[in-house]
Specification:
about 160 residues, alpha+beta, elongated, Thiol Ester Dehydrase, Chain A, single chain, about 35% strand
């Protein structure tokens, strides 16, 4: 007899629901600190005068800063929560799509939504897995999508003996 799916109708009903928007201002000093922390000496991240003379006309954020520093939960709140029956957790990976430069002074609005739920059987010792895929969209003050991130979270059953 096949086991009943861990994905309930209630869980499925959360697919596509978007979080409340979070708003975050990108400032020069956090750009500098982020670039310094990752060891990137690009003057677009450190030197306001240099950046102003560039095609961007302002300091820009290193690509990874937005997906790792600007979190939607800071203001608007997280997307609807899927209550997994499993407590063991894994990060199944993150994807980033950088569409436009994020500049110092930009006001980003971020929303997150659950885009998919999957159930799979893991290898022995892992058991059943619940896979949740979340997508966050960041827009600037002009409504332009500047970054999209997609994260895969996995919860799993673990040993059954």
């Amino acid at each position: 007899m096949a086991e009943e799916s861990v994905i309930t109708d209630k869980m499925r009903s959360l697919i596509g629901i978007e979080s409340e928007p979070s708003v975050y201002e990108i400032q020069q000093e956090p750009i500098r600190r982020w670039a310094e922390a990752i060891g990137d000496s690009n003057p677009l991240y450190h030197d306001e005068e240099y950046a102003r003379k560039s095609r961007f006309a302002a300091m820009i954020a290193p690509p990874g800063m937005v997906g790792n520093y600007v979190f939607p939960v800071k203001a608007g709140g997280p997307p609807p929560h899927v209550e997994s029956p499993f407590w063991r957790r894994l990060n199944g990976g993150n994807e980033y799509e950088f569409l436009k430069p994020v500049k110092a002074g930009d006001i980003l609005t971020a929303t997150t939504r659950l885009v998919d739920l999957q159930e799979r059987q893991g290898r022995p010792g892992i058991g059943r897995m619940l896979i949740q895929i979340m997508e966050t969209t960041y827009k600037n003050q002009r409504g332009e999508v500047v970054v999209k991130t997609r994260g895969t979270g996995i919860t799993y059953e673990g040993p059954t003996e």
